[in-house]
Amino acid sequence: MAASEKARAKVEQAVGKVAQAAGRAAGNEKLIAKGHAAEAAGHAREAKESVKDSGRRH
Hints:
Helix 1 packs antiparallel against helix 2. The chain has helices at 3-26, 29-57. The protein is elongated, with a radius of gyration of 14 Å. It has one domain. The two termini are 14 Å apart. The chain is mainly α. It has two helices and no strands.
């Protein structure tokens, strides 16, 4: 996995978790949903890069 893409995935996941926590604290359902979406995007990016890496090894 390219280091920059791996870092970007981790940042997206962290931003999502922070947004979810802020949304829960404020009682803002939209912010919680946006946090879930950002975290899911980070997980998807990480999975995509893992698949790309597994193809390079074989």
